Write the structure tokens for this entry.
Amino acid sequence: MNVNYNGNLISSTSPFIDTSNRAFRYGDSIFETILIHKGRPLYIEDHFERLLKASSYLKMKLPRQIDATYFAEAIVNLYQNGNFKNDVRIRFTLFRSGGGFYHPLKNDAEFLIECFELQNSGYQWHPSGLHCGFYNDERKSISPLSNFKTDRKSTRLNSSHVSESRMPSSA
């Protein structure tokens, strides 16, 4: 399967991100997850608008080619490059280039677009139904950054482990 890395289609198994990557080291990235249903990306304009707001808030300078048209076309082109039978989840990740420790050396951004085929098409309920719960071990801070999808997800990851352990097994 291919990915789009900074406008280039490359194999997802090829090494293309080095160990100084700020998204990997510091979670210095934002992303949008877009559902492609029956070959059409849903709410693409809303996703692009949120990506613009988040990059502006984090002072990331978008790559020159990224505008609303390129965003939609790059996603559709990557989708069409695969041979998918079901709906697809697209992850568009924008991350700050270059090194630096906590303070970045520059604000230029790079991007990665990935496709993940879903098991089914359309929205599906979990076989055992909907289960809700509360995770009180950590609190998510409330700030302007809370409105954006970032890779700073340790609270969400921890809560998903707890949630999974409490799920009834589906027989």
Notes: The chain has a mean pLDDT of 84.
